[in-house]
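To fix ideas, we quote verbatim one protein's residues and fold tokens.
>
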Amino acid sequence: MTDKRCPYCGQAAVEEQATNENTKSYSEKYICLNCSETFGVNVSDSTLAPEKHCDTFYFSQGGFFGGSQFIKVEERDGYADLIVSSPYGNTEDRVDVRFRIMLSEWQDIKTMLFYDLFVLYWNETYHDPNILDGTQWEMRLEFDDRATVEKSGSNAFPALYDELVDYLQPYFDQGDFERD
């Protein structure tokens, strides 16, 4: 057993799959003992792993009455820009906070996204048509070697969504300020 959780059902009953030691593949594959889904990274060369090629992460969430907020991380030459929006205001008067973070912190974010939350296994869309006003969210991952990955939802969420929001909360807190 491992401390990983399944991105499909959210259960912690996850077991690492055995890898073939004779192959030179880079593999961190898991199987959920609850829903039987498999997930994880399995590439023939570790240089092809998603965290090596992801250079932009964007996440936004919000609702009609609660305001909305976004975070964006863009890798640069030797550092990464982290932009956090203030939680309220329309696009004309919104104030964004910009930080430079070390590449090691950016790598930690990508590790969380790809190896703890398994965001590449989330569905493209989540939608609950029975709720009119609520929470809408969007995530975008841009890569230098593959197509952009986009995930979104309206009043419905993947199993590990709350873990993502909890992980990003300290960054959102950086942009949560009162305007004069």
